[in-house]
């Protein structure tokens, strides 16, 4: 997420912090570069201009204070203003909010809470609906899914398949071919969901290739008929400058309460995320960071601003570990590591699988402070390498995993054939494993 933008901004700020004394001209030059990089990342012109002016105004006063390094003060100002662009409040930046800074969904006190997902065709509404349903299910919100797109072929089948994957019931469109209007279909689906005791109902609406009058009229009718607590725009994070036009169109048409950005695990330049709140005033509530059902994260503007500037996000790393790692397996592994015998390759495989469960390696490493986009390139993190290691270990017998010292040349050749990897790679893995085991014994 924001890889290119992060790399460019951290390079500019690194030059600023490397100077003991800053002049107004130094700040002006740095902000000129930052402005260019934001525009290249598809941030809207008006949002960029406002950001630069606010930082310039505060930075001129900050460089006159010598209690703290002027460069560090400018970095903090830039981080705070990026967080404000993303929706952070002054309380968030001051650390006065003890709970998560991510803006929570609003739920009805009586009856099922209706959440309307809107957006253009291809933005990822259907997969996002399933991801959100999975998340709400884990939060004990008893979700149901409603298919409200009778126009796209196989839309209902896709939602049903995704609903089965996440264990959530799908309602709606029973009479889609009989000429029944979308509003009536959704009303009937909501009644079915209420009978099924769903506390939250996510409506996956139809999209178009562009914002048009027909789409807006349908969404207005759906909003009036369902009285949703949330109307969330699902926007493609790779849309670029069009994200501003799309967000404005939907906000003016149906009145958004928030946004969900998708595809931020790809080559998104970040402009959509940095522009949507600025032009609509609604918070970004979640971001999609992968294809898997669990790849939907609450959006915290302060923490995301830190990630963009290479300051990491340790809180997100801990939360990811807590959500994906098996606590009992982790305790067993710790006891094994501290025992006289130490860990073996079977234990190593358990640790490897736990790490893989946390997501792509680059994504996990990116949450560590100081690991910016440039550092990740130098690390050369490759998830295929982890798969190769897993294949090698699985090709061994239980006895070989427990005692790698018995691995003779013929055994290594057999493992290489079984794993489909060269013998040199097996030798390298065993050597690295021995180094790691010695290191763990010393700690």
Question: Can you give keywords for this protein?
Answer:
443 residues; alpha/beta; Four Helix Bundle (Hemerythrin (Met), subunit A); Rossmann fold; 8 strands; flat
Helix count equals 21
Report, as a whole number of angstroms, the end-to-end distance.
34 Å
Domains counted in the coordinates: how many? 3
The whole-number mean of residue pLDDT values reads: 79
What global shape is seen? flat
Class of the largest domain in CATH?
A: Alpha Beta
Major beta sheet, strand line-up: 3-2-4-1-5-6-7-8
Task: Report the CATH architecture of the largest domain.
Answer: 3-Layer(aba) Sandwich
Radius of gyration (CA) equals 25 Å
Instruction: Classify the beta-strand content into a percent band.
Output: 5-15%
Flag low-confidence runs. 96-100
CATH topology of the largest domain: Rossmann fold
Tally the beta strands. 8
